[in-house]
Amino acid sequence: MYLVTVLGNLLIILAAISDSRLHTPMYFFLSNLSFVDICFASTTVPKMLVNIQTQSKVITYAGCITQMCFFVLFIVLDSLLLTVMAYDRFVAICHPLHYTVIMSPQLCGLLVLVSWIISVLNSMLQSLVTLHLSFCTDLEIPHFFCELNEMIHLSCSDTFVNNMVMYFAAVLLDGGPLVGILYSYCRIVSSIRAISSTQGKYKAFSTCASHLSVVSIFYGTGLGVYLSSTMTQNLHSTAVASVMYTVVTPMLNPFIYSLRNKDIKGALAQFFRGKQ
Known about the structure:
Elements: H1 2-18, H2 25-54, H3 61-94, H4 99-102, H5 105-131, H6 148-153, H7 160-193, H8 198-231, H9 235-259, H10 262-275
Helix pairs in contact: 1-2, 1-9, 1-10, 2-3, 2-9, 3-5, 3-7, 3-8, 5-7, 7-8, 8-9
């Protein structure tokens, strides 16, 4: 699954770079999302594979903090990029005549850059406040990776500041993007309903179907992780939800974006023909 994740997302990036027809804002954002998905899976899965091979679940304190730092970085970046992609679809459907003017290369680059800056700053803040915590000996984290919420929960020191920072960041950087995505799709649905022809409605909706599927899986599995960890003490169900969130979702994204996308299929076919 990890190899499929890396290779699948890498093919999306190569297709977008090699084919000039895909040098558009939508595929620029998709390439960035694929890169982040590779990094997201690589934050947790290699260590998990080593643990399975060595039959050891031990991780150093420095390794745990590093893993948590990068996990927080890429999970927030994933959320922000999905929001940027929703805005791109909103402009394409609701303001098609002004699309090329609004979604200029400068704005696209700026949106990705701002997403990176916000994600890095949040990750650094979360890591710094976690470094001030003290931990008891013989800790056992009920996940296959160092998850921020569990790290705070297992601390022996006062965690009020950590909880406040974590919940504020969750509302701002998870809830905020979700509200932005929902608002964009409300406007998109209103615009699609105003289209007179059935073919026009189908064409407009098909451009959003892949992104909407990825958003549903991303937020659905993420919500499942935290609901399972707060509402049940069953560690098995929590672990399964975590695997869905961190392994399955990044693996599915390339399939979702490529199976029904003729442009991606054509670009990949042309790429492999050029290599032969």
